[in-house]
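Chapter summary example.
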Amino acid sequence: MSTREHDSADDGRHDQLTTAPKSTEADAAPRIDVTDQGDGVKRIDIRDDAAVRPGTDPDD
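The structure predicted for these 60 residues follows.
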């Protein structure tokens, strides 16, 4: 994906996540980091500052 296509995808994601009546800018905050490791391998990491993270609910 080119930088221009990536920027367009980011804009579309932002628009989609902030159009709901009670949505905020925080709803569109990035939640993952994708790193190209080369040879077609990509690493996907959940960001430390992501508001929603996979796993068990700490309140349970």
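To summarize the output: The chain has one helix and two strands.
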